[in-house]
Specification:
The protein is an alpha+beta fold and 148 residues long. The chain has a single domain, classed as 2,3-Dihydroxybiphenyl 1,2-Dioxygenase, domain 1 (Roll). The protein has six helices and eight strands. The protein has an eight-stranded mixed sheet with strand order 2-3-4-1-5-8-7-6.
């Protein structure tokens, strides 16, 4: 696994528009709406590739049953996940599993999905979310995200 470094941090927030405005003002970050990725989990998603930040917030009406509700209730707003870039997503996942860390969720977008939802910015977009929160205090995601 050739590590590329931190790709982005994922921050759980209660109000995505207020948070988007806040990070835009203090960092000059440009956010792209990515709600299509979060809808199955009951969350809104905004990603700033230039700042390395992904904001996630509960969808209206899903504040209690979305995937981030327990985190927000227990800890409040804050860093929930750190995404590390890797050269090979499959190898990175295998290495984590060999180290005894299981994968809780994986995705590997097709080029059609990348073109439709991520403005065709990438030729490869694969992520593996690890069950690391108990040990690290946050989740780790291993991501092979190759620019076009």
């Amino acid at each position: 696994m050739d590590l590329r470094g931190v790709n982005r941090v994922i921050i759980a927030v209660r109000d995505i528009e207020k948070s988007r405005d806040y990070y835009s003002r203090i960092l000059g970050a440009t956010f792209h709406e990515a709600n299509w990725t979060g809808a199955p989990f009951g969350i809104l998603v905004a990603i700033s590739w230039d700042a390395g930040i992904e904001l996630i917030a509960p969808m209206a009406g899903r504040e209690r049953d979305c995937i981030i509700a327990p985190f927000l209730e227990l800890r409040g707003e804050g860093v929930m996940n750190v995404v590390f870039g890797v050269d090979n997503g499959g190898h990175a996942r295998a290495r984590a599993e060999e180290a005894g860390v299981r994968t809780t969720h994986s995705l590997d977008y097709s080029q059609a999905e990348i073109d439709a939802h991520l403005a065709g910015l990438f030729r490869k977009y694969e992520e593996h979310v690890l069950d690391s929160a108990t040990r690290c205090g946050f989740s780790i995601t291993l991501a092979q995200i190759d620019p076009r």
